Write a sequence for this structure.
């Protein structure tokens, strides 16, 4: 009789441990199946329209329907929808419908084919104006001159315009870029700068990121 009771108690304890294990691992299993909308963290507005590809990350391959809201500086901007097992959707970015700034990709809802809810991850991205920088160089004896041009895309103009901002001229030495001169660009985004240098070296121009524009780095020029 005692042996029987002992077996029952041991069995009950084992069931309790197993149940505890199930309770502990259920959230872990749920977390492992968390889905997310895989999108660029940075989007540059470079023209009237840009199609941005968004992929569905579904580690447990359960999703039948999922949606996220894109919340921007002016509130809800768009929705991302994956329907009937789709794994790709698109964000239509026009130069007039997405103000520059930070956006949250906020979960709305997600379900499998049996209408069971699936956990979703929140995302974030930034949208700013596209930019570009160009530098050409020339030498006059021991002096090296640089003609610089920087531009950014203007939605109101529908094209690229001169970028009147600060810029840096950098020189590469042993694989590292060093700033050798800081200067301002005029309203046309242009400037001419010069340095007294005898040795030949690679140079580039860098324009820093602002609250509205992404940064720009020119191609390298040797002089």
């Amino acid at each position: 009789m005692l042996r029987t009771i002992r077996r029952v108690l041991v069995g009950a304890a084992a069931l309790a441990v197993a149940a505890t294990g199930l309770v502990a691992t259920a959230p872990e299993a749920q977390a492992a199946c968390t889905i997310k909308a895989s999108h660029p963290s940075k989007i540059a507005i470079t023209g009237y329209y840009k199609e941005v590809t968004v992929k569905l990350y579904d580690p447990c391959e359960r999703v039948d329907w999922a949606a996220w809201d894109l919340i921007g500086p002016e509130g809800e901007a768009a929705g991302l929808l994956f329907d009937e097992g789709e794994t790709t959707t698109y964000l239509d970015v026009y130069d007039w419908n997405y103000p520059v700034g930070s956006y949250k990709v906020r979960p709305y809802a997600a379900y499998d084919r049996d209408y069971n809810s699936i956990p979703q991850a929140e995302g974030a991205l930034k949208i700013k104006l596209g930019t570009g920088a160009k530098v050409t160089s020339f030498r006059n004896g021991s002096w090296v001159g640089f003609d610089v041009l920087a531009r950014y895309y203007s939605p109101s103009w529908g094209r690229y315009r001169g970028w009147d901002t600060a810029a840096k001229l950098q020189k590469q030495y042993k694989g590292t870029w060093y700033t050798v001169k800081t200067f301002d660009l005029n309203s046309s985004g242009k400037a001419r700068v010069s340095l007294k240098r005898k040795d030949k070296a690679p140079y580039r121009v860098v324009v820093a990121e602002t609250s509205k524009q992404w940064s720009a780095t020119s191609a390298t020029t040797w002089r």
In short: The longest helix spans residues 2-32.
